[in-house]
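QA checklist item 7 of 12: single-chain prediction sanity check.
[x] sequence parsed
[x] length recorded as 339
[x] structure emitted
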Amino acid sequence: MSRRTALITGITGQDGSYLAEYLLELGYRVVGITRRTSSHTGGRIEHLGERIELIGADLLDQTSLLAIVDQVQPDEIYNLAAQSFVPASWQQPVLTSEVTALGVTRLLEAARIACPSARVYQASSSEMFGMATETPQNERTPFYPRSPYGVSKLYGHWIAVNYRESYGMFVTSGILFNHESPRRGREFVTRKISHRVARIAHGLDRELRLGNLDARRDWGYAPDYVRAMHAMLQRDHPRDYVIATGETHSVGEFCAHAFAHAGLDWREHVVVDPAFLRPADVELLVGDAADARRDLGWRPTVDFPELVHIMVDADLALVAEELSRGSRLGDPSPIPLLP
């Protein structure tokens, strides 16, 4: 029996790299779509070497997507590519819409035409709930996005539902709440905190500037969440699932845990900077993953304090390595491949 083939967009990102590892462990052939850029973006998957196949394409280009889906004939397609940084969506709302919203339509259309039997996973987001009308949020909670990113994700979510219902395609969306790891980009608040804590602990910086410390999120561990993605595509019938820990913690709590783990008092180093406040913020998001627990047998394995410790330990090791190489600037370096 031939092994199954998975096609992953966004394979160079946090989730894409963990998903590729997980699928390889399960015996899949893994093909990743990468966007051609002038800068190197493959640090998170370099260790996978020739175990994965990479093909150039772009969610902005229908022709390239159609050609790749036709060539690969995947059993499963995971659409993880997006302009996924919420603050940047305010600065580039049109680009965010083109990639994060219309890019989903282009990929679904490619699958419909070239490989309609493929099972498709769409990466939806808790940011679609935005100004949530109820807490916690589940699959039946109304959406109220509060950023161009959230609005774009909502379009992608609903177009996925429409392709499922209109064409009978196996399309499922994971409404994933925040999930973090040492492979998170440094522009995201959790990694910004853990990396700056490491630099302060090593004497390279003195302060960390942040926006709203009271914003609360449901934070989980990224490798746990990619297991849920795969599980959704193994169901007999497609449907959408909320994936979350069910716990909420503030940005301030994340700071307190991170600094304390490095033997520091966060109140001596954190500065609230209005420049990092969003035009419209989301104060509280916390998910109810009861359906995923029941149908998928999914549960998180890493709790909040352990997640923070994993990230801080990884960045302490990364900054120590930078110092050993004589770099005191913290310039971009290989993403740490820690758990």
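[x] summary fact logged: The chain has two domains: 5-179+220-243, 182-218+247-285+301-324.
[ ] second reviewer sign-off
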